[in-house]
UniProtKB/TrEMBL annotation:
<dbReference type="GO" id="GO:0015833">
    <property type="term" value="P:peptide transport"/>
</dbReference>
<comment type="similarity">
    <text>Belongs to the ABC transporter superfamily.</text>
</comment>
<dbReference type="GO" id="GO:0005886">
    <property type="term" value="C:plasma membrane"/>
</dbReference>
<keyword id="KW-0547">Nucleotide-binding</keyword>
<dbReference type="GO" id="GO:0055085">
    <property type="term" value="P:transmembrane transport"/>
</dbReference>
<dbReference type="InterPro" id="IPR003593">
    <property type="entry name" value="AAA+_ATPase"/>
</dbReference>
<dbReference type="InterPro" id="IPR003439">
    <property type="entry name" value="ABC_transporter-like_ATP-bd"/>
</dbReference>
<dbReference type="InterPro" id="IPR013563">
    <property type="entry name" value="Oligopep_ABC_C"/>
</dbReference>
<dbReference type="InterPro" id="IPR017871">
    <property type="entry name" value="ABC_transporter-like_CS"/>
</dbReference>
<feature type="domain" description="ABC transporter">
    <location>
        <begin position="35"/>
        <end position="290"/>
    </location>
</feature>
<dbReference type="GO" id="GO:0005524">
    <property type="term" value="F:ATP binding"/>
</dbReference>
<dbReference type="Pfam" id="PF00005">
    <property type="entry name" value="ABC_tran"/>
</dbReference>
<keyword id="KW-0067">ATP-binding</keyword>
<keyword id="KW-0813">Transport</keyword>
<dbReference type="InterPro" id="IPR050319">
    <property type="entry name" value="ABC_transp_ATP-bind"/>
</dbReference>
<dbReference type="GO" id="GO:0016887">
    <property type="term" value="F:ATP hydrolysis activity"/>
</dbReference>
<protein>
    <submittedName>
        <fullName>ABC transporter ATP-binding protein</fullName>
    </submittedName>
</protein>
């Protein structure tokens, strides 16, 4: 059975059936990517007397937070982005939406080069690219009511009248499980889960095509996490949204994402369909990451793949494989540059040792 998208109406893709993780591989072959990122990099200059003296001596003083990241996301697809804290996941998300200006690289939404837009042209594009931030409390304005916060994107990005905006806000609040009764409340009157639902409502009220989810459940307890995840999945299926889902919760990524990209020290080291990556992790860092996930069975036993040492400084990234100083499998060849290559159909990995026996 071949999967294809039906006609597009009012800036929204409608689907003959919901897209699920088991269908995403054949479906991706016939649907062009909605978002395409190539060679995305972001460096932050260090300040102070020490870095200034280093620059005078010709030494590098930039923090390479993101270094040559490339991926694509198809319409209706969820790409999970995982990695330890400080690897550059959130910086990638902010560069995609131009909340942080990338140093180099290309970000294309459909046929539009996002990195070249400025002023009103960039503002017109923002209705199609939105973000749900990690901290639901900090992302809300305590001086505004829920209605005013959710309505604000409509004031900026649409020409709807007051009555139309009011009706759209009521519809979106119902869609996220709150209802119009919450419209008059303020942030301090909401629970953590309700605050995150307001953030999600604000992100989807302009009917975007692409939404960045930057650890949307990390500040919530377990029961609320499951409700938010089910809500996000339902919104994706019903509205044809595409997600970049950033999370430390490997189990949540396994459930929600169609494909997974693993980041380490500013670069993607492995990328594959979710089922394939969890069943057959190829990169040593991915193996270490998955082996650290607890198993909810006290009698279960598995071999732990551990790394040695600490993460190197992003100011002084090792040559060749970034993991070679910590990897127990490292060999002399690991000191040579290692590109991201396709080790199996749809399975990309940056490791010299894969396929060497």
């Amino acid at each position: 059975m071949r999967w294809r998208c039906a006609a597009r109406t009012s800036r929204r893709w409608t689907w003959s059936r919901p897209i699920t993780a088991s269908h995403v591989t054949p479906w991706r072959r016939i649907v062009p990517p909605l978002l395409k990122v190539e060679g995305l990099s972001k460096s932050f200059p260090m300040r102070g007397l020490g870095p200034m003296l280093d620059r005078m001596r010709g030494r590098r003083t930039d923090v390479r937070a993101v270094d040559g990241v490339s991926f694509d996301i198809a319409p209706g697809e969820t790409l999970g982005l995982v990695g330890e804290s400080g690897c550059g996941k959130s910086t990638v998300a902010r560069c995609l939406l131009r909340l942080v200006e990338p140093t180099s690289g290309s970000v294309r939404l459909d046929d539009t080069e996002v990195t070249r837009l400025n002023g009103s042209a960039l503002q017109r594009l923002r209705h199609g690219m939105q973000m749900v931030f990690q901290d639901p409390t900090a992302a809300l304005n305590p001086r505004l009511s829920v209605r005013r916060m959710v309505e604000e994107p409509l004031r900026l990005h649409t020409t709807l009248g007051p009555s139309e905006r009011r009706a759209r806000v009521d519809d979106v609040l119902v869609a996220v499980g709150l209802g119009p009764d919450f419209a008059a409340r303020y942030a301090h009157e909401l629970s953590g889960g309700q605050k995150q639902r307001v953030n999600i409502a604000r992100a989807i009220v302009t009917d975007p095509r692409f939404v960045v989810l930057d650890e949307p459940t990390s500040a919530l307890d377990v029961s609320l996490r499951s409700r938010i995840i089910l809500l996000l999945e339902a919104l994706r299926e019903n509205r044809g949204l595409s997600y970049l889902f950033i999370s430390h919760d490997i189990a949540t990524v396994k459930y929600l994402a169609h494909r997974v990209a693993v980041m380490y020290l500013g670069a993607i080291v492995e990328q594959a369909e979710t089922r394939e990556l969890f069943a057959n992790p190829l990169h040593p860092y991915t193996r270490a990451l998955l082996s650290a996930v607890p198993i909810p069975d006290p009698d279960a036993r598995r071999e732990r793949f551990a790394l040695a040492g600490e993460v190197p400084s992003p100011v002084d990234i090792p040559a060749g494989c970034r993991l070679r100083g910590r990897c127990p499998l490292a060999q002399p060849i690991c000191a040579q540059p290692v590109p991201l290559r396709e080790a199996a159909p749809g399975h990309w990995v940056a490791c010299h040792l894969v396929g060497k026996g």
